TrEMBL record:
GO MF annotation: an example: monooxygenase activity
Transmembrane among keywords: yes
Record keywords: Membrane, Monooxygenase, Oxidoreductase, Transmembrane, Transmembrane helix
Record field: transmembrane: 12-29, 62-80, 101-124, 144-171, 178-199, 228-247, 259-276, 282-300, 307-325
Pfam family name, one: DUF6427
Protein name: Beta-carotene 15,15'-monooxygenase
Organism listed in the record: Pedobacter chinensis
Superkingdom per UniProt: Bacteria
Length: 326
């Protein structure tokens, strides 16, 4: 199966679509009775009054989420191939993205984090273009605005602001205008939101938006390890990919090295940003899927022993299905 997706064959589009539905057999088989979809953060609903909480039935919710994941996988696949992060263009990034979004049941429903992944993939594309642009002020400003819009949809997306500065450190020599441009882009979105709150004579509520920033990072976590055993194959593949990446690191293009460093930090920032949402859900970690998928795809793109990587992938898929049904 991996060997098939190593090729840019048009037939892989159909196989990828079939694979997307296959990975969601468990949730189609045991459809939840009711699924709510909070499209926007409460503070943004005054600006855009869209009530989709109960707009879809459970089957429709899951079906729309499946189609969204497939579309995102194709966009993500194109972005990674365009920036030559893997050995050669393939459908592996899209395959790994779909696999990553199938790890847990909460990943398979409509959620703000799933919608935010459209913006996260767009941000990744713009970050990877920073090193190729002569004047990146406009690009950084755009990234700031995208992060601002993403924050309206899902507040922890704000943590991606940190990635602007990390990306500039990696890809650009210091220019204070570029560092300021990202913040200006971000606060432009919230400036218009503040004006709207002012018009509604509700400026005091606008200040409440920022209260989660004062949350302390939790020091104690209540985790049921049995719910996360499915991550064992993921960890194994990531370790193998890291070893392979280290072996090829200094033989890769400088832009490729910096790209993987950027995605590593993005994975950490996306995962750690859960503390910005006191009542966060498991689907928050969908934000970790795009950067994590690149590392998984890197391993399967460069692995040599076909019997081993094909067997490893099959075991990975079987473990996901087992834990989804059990």
């Amino acid at each position: 199966m991996i060997n098939q997706f190593r090729k840019l064959n048009p037939i892989n589009l159909l196989l990828l679509l079939a694979y997307t539905f296959f990975m969601r057999i468990a949730i189609f088989y045991e459809t939840p009775d009711q699924l709510n979809f909070d499209f926007l953060e409460p503070f943004a609903r005054l600006l855009i009054n869209i009530d989709l909480d109960n707009a879809f039935s459970s089957p429709a919710n899951i079906l729309i989420a499946t189609i969204i994941v497939f579309i995102q996988a194709l966009i993500f696949n194109r972005v990674i191939n365009n920036h030559n992060l893997l050995a050669k263009p393939s459908f592996l990034p899209g395959l790994m993205y779909i696999t990553g979004t199938s790890l847990f049941m909460p990943f398979m429903i409509l959620s703000p984090a799933l919608i935010s992944n459209f913006l996260l993939i767009w941000v990744i594309d713009k970050f990877l273009k920073l090193g190729k642009s002569a004047n990146s002020i406009t690009t950084v400003f755009d990234i700031g605005m995208i992060i601002g819009v993403g924050t309206l949809i899902y507040f922890p997306f704000m943590a991606m602001l940190l990635m602007i500065f990390l990306a500039l450190l990696l890809f650009r020599s210091f220019n204070w205008r570029e560092w300021v441009a990202g913040l200006v882009g971000f606060f432009t979105v919230f400036f218009f939101l503040a004006v709207f709150y002012y018009w509604r004579d509700n400026l005091a509520s606008f200040y409440q938006i920022w209260k989660p920033l004062g949350n302390r990072f939790p020091s104690v976590f209540q985790i049921n390890l049995n719910d996360y055993l499915v991550l064992i194959p993921v960890v194994i593949i990531i370790v193998l990919a890291s070893l392979q990446l280290r072996e090829n690191f200094f033989r890769s293009f400088i832009s490729t090295r910096k790209g993987f460093q950027l995605l590593f930090f993005m994975f950490i920032v996306a995962g750690a940003s859960f503390y910005l949402k006191p009542n966060f859900r498991t689907w928050h970690f969908l934000l970790c899927v795009p950067p994590g998928s690149v590392l998984l795809a890197y391993y399967f793109s460069n692995a040599k022993k076909r019997w081993f990587y094909e067997t490893l992938f099959v075991l990975f898929i079987l473990s996901i299905q087992y834990f989804l049904f059990v």
